[in-house]
Amino acid sequence: MNDASLSAATMSAEGLASAGLPAEAAAGRGPLKIAVYGTGYLGATHAVAMAELGFEVLGADVDQAKVDALAAGKVPFFEPGLDPLLEKHLATGRLRFTTDLTSAAAWGDVHFICVGTPQMKTSHAANLSYVESAATTIAKNLTKDALIVGKSTVPVGTAARLRELVAAQAPAGVSLELVWNPEFLREGKAVDDTLHPDRIVLGGTSERAEATLREVYAGPIAEGTPVVVTDLPTAELVKVSANAFLATKISFINAISTVCEAAGADVTVLADALGHDVRIGRQFLNAGLGFGGGCLPKDIRALMHRANELGAYRASALLQQVDEINMGQRERVLDMAVEACGGSVLNRRIGVLGAAFKPDTDDVRDSPALNVAAALHLRGAQVTVFDPEAGDTARRSFPTLSYATSIEEAVEGTDAVLVLTEWDQFATADADKLAPLTATPRVVDARGKLDPARWRAAGWEFAGLGRPAA
Ligand SMILES: NC(=O)c1ccc[n+]([C@@H]2O[C@H](COP(=O)([O-])OP(=O)(O)OC[C@H]3O[C@@H](n4cnc5c(N)ncnc54)[C@H](O)[C@@H]3O)[C@@H](O)[C@H]2O)c1
Ligand SMILES: O=c1ccn([C@@H]2O[C@H](COP(=O)(O)OP(=O)(O)O[C@H]3O[C@H](CO)[C@@H](O)[C@H](O)[C@H]3O)[C@@H](O)[C@H]2O)c(=O)[nH]1
Question: Which SS3 state, helix, strand or coil, does residue 62 take?
Answer without folding.
Answer: coil
